[in-house]
Amino acid sequence: xxxxxxxxxxxxxxxxxxxxxxxxxxxxxxxxxxxxxxxxxxxxxxxxxxxxxxxxxxxxxxxxxxxxxxxxxxxxxxxxxxxxxxxxxxxxxxxxxxxxxxxxxxxxxxxxxxxxxxxxxxxxxxxxxxxxxxxxxxxxxxxxxxxxxxxxxxxxxxxxxxxxxxxxxxxxxxxxxxxxxxxxxxxxxxxxxxxxxxxxxxxxxxxxxxxxxxxxxxxxxxxxxxxxxxxxxxxxxxxxxxxxxxxxxxxxxxxxxxxxxxxxxxxxxxxxxxxxxxxxxxxxxxxxxxxxxxxxxxxxxxxx
Length: 304
Prior knowledge:
Blueprint: E1 7-10, H1 24-37, E2 42-44, H2 56-70, E3 76-80, H3 85-98, E4 102-105, H4 115-128, E5 133-137, H5 139-142, H6 148-154, E6 160-165, H7 172-180, E7 185-188, H8 194-199, E8 204-207, H9 214-225, H10 229-243, H11 251-262, H12 278-293
Parallel strand pairs: 1-8, 2-3, 3-4, 4-5, 5-6, 6-7, 7-8
């Protein structure tokens, strides 16, 4: 399946049972909700997917399960976040064997690679696989910025096709467009810049709170793309206090709690993460309850 690198693509959470096993029934329920809402791809094993806690067998199960559930309707993409080039090449190979049709790639983990090392890392993986790649540029959380000059060097690899833009600098979308035209698709990776990025010309939105609110997220994107800005803005203004739960070190716990409140997830996380507690839990619950009390009736958006 061809990856278009556009539209809303949820970075889905990994569902666990109280016994710390994969909760496939709840995982499937959430994936089905995403497909029904109109997302245009599923991304597994990202930060929200608690990738660093998953073993290879669990990743295999998640990919194969998702491929079966989406049944060819939308692409299944997996994140590659490895410490070594060898490990990243192996992860890309396994992803293709398990049925993924695209990769989202972070720079090397733990070691703060310089520009030359980072470009070489991406280049070696790109040469090793036929899968299309979206480079995840998030210097705030991961410490390495993929600069425009680095993206210039990577243009020669046809399978490096997209950028997940998470620098928090909204004008970077325009810089990418000015320099590269349509060479790269650009998807925002910051929930609180979802609408703004779409209006600035982003092709899509790799979203987090979509895990709990799939229809609202897709509606904002599609309405904005269709030029129905007021309708998109009305939903987005309601949504923003909830979207801000994505900008937190506890984003996984926040979003999993939101999934509980919308009935398509559980609160179980994998240690060392623990569910929210105390004042922070009370604060997040109030945001969710206030939002659900005023949850908007969505206009018809799927045909847009």
